[in-house]
Write a structure and sequence with these properties.
Order of helices and strands: HHHHHHHHHHHHH
Strand content: under 5%
Number of helices: 13
Oligomer: single chain
Shape: globular
Number of strands: 0
Number of domains: 2
Structural class: mainly alpha
Length: 323
Amino acid sequence: MFGDVGNLGVSVFFVISGFLITTLLLAELTRTHRIDLARFYGRRACRILPAAGVYLLVLALLGVSTPHLRLSTLDWRHALTFTMNYQQHRAWLVGHLWSLSVEEQFYLLWPAAFLLFGRTGSLGLAASAVAIAPFWRVCVWVLWPDAREGIGETFPTVMDAIATGCVLAGAAGWLAERAWYRRFLTSPLIGAVFLVVLGSNALDGHPSFYLPFGMTIRNMGIAVIVHWSILRTNRFATVTLDCAVLRSIGRMSYSLYLWQQPFLNRHFEAIATTFPVSVAGAALCAALSFVCVELPVLRLRDRLTTVSRVSREHFSFAGRADL
């Protein structure tokens, strides 16, 4: 009825990711007038690599003892280089890593764009990506039929979802100050935005609409809903987002993302893949990953960051004292 809900969820994730990362970069640029690439990449690596590494290690061990779970060399190559979005015939156990690959490619390119082009230039680049991606999707569909399977996964055909979030981050402050925009967000018309997003997603089986228009409309609608949620212009949204259960799920979302795949395997019949065991198994593995891998690494990262900052401040103070 509403199209591929999974792809809709990934689009929401991409828009939010573009918004959050760009907001952080803009704040750093405002505060320090520069982008510390080493710090950015270091923090992203601590956030992404350990949990993903443990998941892949478990898959490798499973492959040794269970031949039908063994990954191909091509799957391993794309998984380890975060290019799974360019491997269309991938194994189920690593199939979901295509979206993580898109994210990693974004993390690699976007801070460098800020460094090279500054605030205005980089946001202009993001706006250009929003405009170019629909055209590129149509070109792939018409000119390279063999590459159609990759539409919506390869970076040039999906970059506009993240770029929409980036543009929202740049325009969020200006929009929040516009009376007409705030009136819109508090009016019943916001409900129409939800319907437009769902309607656009429901037409994903019609390439003539979905590729040039539908995905763009969906992304922009998601951006409006994200901003509506952030500004808390609706009491229901505020109460829902402050729910302790949702906050807990949000904190563990990355581990849940990694570990849901083995338990939602449609191609493997086992007790672990049947409901509700599948849900419980995914939740348990995600919790273990979060507590035993993510939290210790993040705490170590924050501790090292604090030590590094204190050291810089100490040497800066010592230098001023010597003068």
